[in-house]
Write a structure and sequence with these properties.
The protein has eleven helices and eight strands. The chain is of the alpha/beta class. Strands 1-2-3-4-5-6-7-8 form an eight-stranded parallel barrel, surrounded by six helices. It binds 1,3-dihydroxyacetonephosphate.
Length: 255
């Protein structure tokens, strides 16, 4: 079965609520005719509610950038799965490299978050990827394998269709240095093979694996035409409506 590519904009800590709504308006104006690709946005927590109201049940999927694994309690500053679900979020990002790097997120905490989110009815975009030092040391396949092995311990086979993986080499994020299509494809094939070993060939064949790291309109085509790349997780280029829409069209054109 052909996988529907998924392009999601991760707005990170950019755009306040009015600016988020403005960008959503621009997207809504043009997203309608783009067929054959799932399109999502992950604005700041503060904008999730007003953005949800604006996009209604339309074409754009809504993603949160983080979640806590406990259901409720004394966790100052945290947001639970059910809170995001109540708000109408469809997806949540787990394990983004910036959360791993700056906020102490580990494969173990990602496993808890992924398990809690999937059990609570949120789809998960689980982010993985090696640092430059790890790649230079030739350890990139091992690092990603470990992120999969330790980060997906709470994934039940029956919920695998609610999981998306995002391969984001840390050295390509916000640096303007994209992985070559061959480098990306090689890693995506590795990831799919590891998923097949653990969860079976059928799950692996249906699982979408996004690429992330300096994707822009000018390099999206060559990345998305790789057989194991099923769309992208887009940072900087997602902050501009026309650039983002062009990337979405590139994903569509692959199918
Ligand atoms: P850039 O597209 O800005 O490199 O960011 C990628 C990313 O981290 C998306 O989650």
């Amino acid at each position: 079965m052909a996988r529907v590519p998924f392009v999601c904009g991760n707005w990170k800590m950019n755009k306040n609520v009015p600016a988020s709504l403005e960008l959503v308006d621009e997207l809504l104006g043009s997203v309608g005719p783009i067929q054959g690709v799932e399109i999502g946005i992950a604005p700041t927590f503060l904008a999730l509610h007003p953005v949800r109201k604006k996009i209604q049940a339309g074409k754009l999927r809504l993603a949160a950038q983080n979640v806590h694994f406990e259901s409720d309690g004394a966790y100052t500053g945290e947001v639970s799965v059910s809170m995001l679900k109540d708000l109408g979020c469809d997806y949540v990002l787990v394990g983004h490299s910036e959360r791993r790097q700056y906020f102490g997120e580990t494969n173990a905490s990602c496993a808890k978050k992924t398990g809690a989110a999937l059990r609570g009815g949120l789809r998960v975009i689980y982010c993985i990827g090696e640092t430059l030092a790890e790649r230079d040391a030739g350890r990139h396949f091992d690092v990603v394998s470990l992120q999969l092995r330790e980060g997906l311990t709470e994934l039940e086979r029956g919920r695998a269709s609610d999981l998306v993986l995002a391969y984001e080499p840390v050295w390509a994020i916000g640096t303007g240095r994209t992985a070559t299509p061959d480098q990306a494809q090689e890693m995506h094939a590795h990831i799919r093979a590891r998923i097949a070993e653990t969860f079976g060939a059928e799950v692996a064949a249906e699982l979408r694996i996004q690429y992330g790291g300096s994707v822009k309109a000018s390099n999206a085509d060559e990345l998305f035409e790789q057989p194991d790349i099923d769309g992208g997780l887009i940072g900087g280029a997602a902050l501009d409506a026309q650039g983002f829409l062009s990337i979405c069209r590139s994903a569509r054109s692959r199918g």
